[in-house]
Design a protein that fits this description.
alpha+beta, 5 helices
């Protein structure tokens, strides 16, 4: 779809998808959007809510892409049981869905499945961001690009403050990643 936030262009591209779908752009005035919605954040940051924390936003602006809530961090949260899995039928608004796909190199599966994408549940649908410079989409669970894998799992929502504390805990051994003023 291109690497931009031109909502009109995204609406046009969504309209020509071949298969019937229910994917919608989340309006710019929707309260689920981060107040700092400058397009800089990725799906994991949105799904886990840290885009609502001024301290996280300041840290990200300072560190740029050096440190962020990303695929590696989400895997660490699962390993530490911070993200607690729930059955799909028990998932509620505010819970998180994580999509998984295999580690692939040159078209060949070379490792176990990894988190590829995340979204937040709202009204039995998913709200997620399909790339750094893309808008937010509201879609059914199965309506994501194929590159996000073919497995999804659901996790109880956690507070953004807890996520940020765990983020600092993970990166604390390497203080060069996080400036002391944000710790």
């Amino acid at each position: 779809m291109g690497n931009n936030t031109d909502l009109t262009r995204h609406e046009q591209l969504m309209a020509v998808l071949k298969d019937p779908h229910s994917i919608l752009l989340v309006p710019t005035d929707d309260p689920i959007r981060p107040k700092c919605d400058q397009g800089w954040y990725v799906c994991y940051e949105f799904a886990l809510g840290v885009t609502a924390l001024p301290s996280y936003v300041r840290m990200r602006e300072f560190c740029k892409d050096e440190s962020s809530v990303d695929q590696r961090f989400v895997g660490w949260l699962m390993k530490k049981n911070v993200l607690v899995e729930v059955e799909h039928q028990h998932a509620r608004d505010g819970d998180v869905v994580i999509y998984f796909g295999p580690r692939v190199s040159e078209g060949v599966c070379v490792g176990p499945t990894l988190p590829k994408h995340a979204g937040r549940i709202r009204l039995a649908r998913i709200v997620s961001k399909w790339g750094r410079h893309y808008p937010l989409y509201d879609h059914a669970v199965e309506e994501v690009p194929e590159l996000y894998g073919d497995e999804c799992r659901f996790f109880k929502g956690v507070s953004p403050e807890l996520v940020y504390c765990k983020f600092l805990e993970l990166y604390k051994p390497d203080p060069s990643k996080i400036p002391e003023s944000f710790q």
